[in-house]
Amino acid sequence: MSNDSEAFVAFDTSKLRHAVAIAEGSREGEVRYLGEIDNSDAAVRGLVKKIAGKYSKVVFCYEAGPTGYGLSRLITDLGHDCLVVAPSLIPIKAGDRVKTNRRDALNLVKLLRAGELTRVWVPDERHEAIRDLTRARQTAAADLVRKRQQILSLMLRLGRIYTGKRHWTRAHMKWLASQKIEHLEQRMVLEEMLLAVRQAQERIARLEEAIRAAVPGWSLAELVHALMALRGVDFISATGFLAEVGDLLRFQSARQLMGFLGMVPSEHSTGGEIIRGSITKAGNRRARRILVECAWSYRYPARVGPDKLGKVMSTPRTVQEVAWKAQCRLTTRYRALLRRGKGKNVTVTAIARELSGFVWAIAHAVAEPSKRQAA
């Protein structure tokens, strides 16, 4: 081995140990399995130092997974490039039915050398902390939905049907509390369920307060407030979306962002036949779900309500123009798709895809003054 050569190293990571494989830079270079090391900073530092002493350039990689980004940050701090690879985009041989840590590491290092791997964006520690906070809030909201559904199911089994317009309003909660249930055991079940709902609501409120306190010191705080100019986007949804997607400026076009979110049509075309299907649903499902929820607000005609007006006026003029253009475009588009016979869910998904394009445009509008100052 020469000090002027290049090498590629792949980790098959796990909770306790990493399987390691190395490939020399040339296409005909040796590929070999180095064995396993402990999942600890000391073991990784020792391995990186040993390999770096034998090669002039070393590139590392591993699959994104539950072990997080700590390994990438450690190797980057040691002065080497480390790719965190998108697992869903790793090429797999159709007939390969054997999976071991050794084989995974060897296959990964060969693909790394061939340039066949797709890198994912690695957030910094602060961004990752915001992401964990917003995900905790999403989990709490889903938990609240489940607890409410349990109460509705209990009431249905007991034959108690609420005749009001909407569930979970103050009137509905008062109705639940006033129910006279014959059996003490069932009454206790209802009280415990109502307590769980109140606790879930308090949990959401605490997490939302923590998000509001954390965002002002975040690098994307300005963009959070800019996105709130869009109809249907509030503080929590804007923060959650940016926490999942990260730096929007890394996308060269709005179409790239749409593809990243899995909101472009799937396609299976051959010869002269073009066959397109439903959206791919690739990428980040949490960010995609947030956009779809926001897109439902474009069912109504374009307008800026009194509550939204202050948020819109606090943003730069270029952002206001994009937000109003989005309203005019998407509300018209919604009605046009319905007239063409599209279902509501399909229509809203299409609106969400176009909404992501306006989100991309606002991100670039916010970044433009900084670019001019840097120039």
Describe this structure as you would to a colleague.
- This protein is of the alpha/beta class and about 375 residues long.
- It folds into three domains: about 110 residues, 2-Layer Sandwich (Nucleotidyltransferase, domain 5), CATH 3.30.420.10; about 90 residues, no CATH class; about 150 residues, no CATH class.
- It contains 13 helices and seven strands.
- The strands form two sheets. Strands 3-2-1-4-5 form a five-stranded mixed sheet. A two-stranded antiparallel ribbon has the order 6-7.
SSE-based structural type: alpha/beta
Order of helices and strands: EEEHEHEHHHHHHHEEHHHH
Strand content bin: 5-15%
Distance between the termini: 44 Å
Shape by Cα distribution: globular
Itemize the secondary structure elements and their pairings.
Elements: E1 6-12, E2 17-24, E3 31-38, H1 41-52, E4 57-63, H2 70-77, E5 81-85, H3 101-114, H4 125-157, H5 170-177, H6 184-214, H7 221-227, H8 235-245, H9 254-260, E6 265-267, E7 276-279, H10 285-295, H11 306-313, H12 317-339, H13 344-374
Parallel strand pairs: 1-4, 4-5
Antiparallel strand pairs: 1-2, 2-3, 6-7
